[in-house]
Amino acid sequence: MEKKSRVIKYQSLRKKISNMDVYSFVEQEDVAKNLPPVSHLSPEENPLPPSSDGIKKNTLSVTLDELIASHESYSQESEKKEMKERYKQKQKERKRREHTLTQGGILLAVFIPLCLIVVAFIILFVTGVF
User: Fold this and answer.
1) Would you give the DSSP letter of residue 26?
2) Contact (Cβ atoms closer than 8 angstroms) between residue 43 and residue 49
3) Which domain of life does the protein's organism represent (predicted)?
4) How many domains does the chain have?
5) pLDDT tier for residue 96 given thresholds of 50, 70 and 90
6) d(CA 95, CA 101)
7) DSSP assignment, residue 24?
């Protein structure tokens, strides 16, 4: 008996759902009555503070000159960021090269005189001085 009453009870809702238009932009009364009104929200509960930096204008309400100016400023900012990144990358690469050259310079400064001393001892040994 309970199943029959449930079927009858929700029959109108099932019919409403099956006849629902997916692309409807009209707010239905039964949906709106379940939502809390925005004016009743306290400042703590309101997700967007009144001075939030949201979208002030959309691209349909902006003039073409403003749109071009904003695009130019955006492209200039992105170029600046890209140049900074390239500069940082080149600085890192230069420091790495200087570091390896310094290590290589120390190696050469020690290795060449050591080789010269060894060659001098070999020459002296071969000539019979020792």
Assistant:
1) S
2) yes
3) Bacteria
4) 1
5) confident
6) 10
7) -
Residue-wise pLDDT for 19-30, tens only, equals 775 555 555 555
Instruction: Record the tokens describing residue 39, joined without a space.
Output: 């004016």
Q: How many CA atoms lie within 13 A of 7 on its CB side?
A: 4
Q: Which domain holds residue 77?
A: 64-129
Residues 6+ apart with CB under 8 A from 70: 62
Does residue 80 form part of some domain?
yes
Query: What's the predicted TM-score (pTM) here?
Result: 0.35
Amino acid at 110: V
Higher pLDDT, 34 or 108: 108
pLDDT score of 53? 55
Structure tokens, 35: 């939502």
Q: Would you say 47 and 54 are in contact if contact means Cβ atoms under 8 Å apart?
A: no
Q: What percent of the chain has pLDDT over 70?
A: 62
* Domain membership flag for residue 68: yes
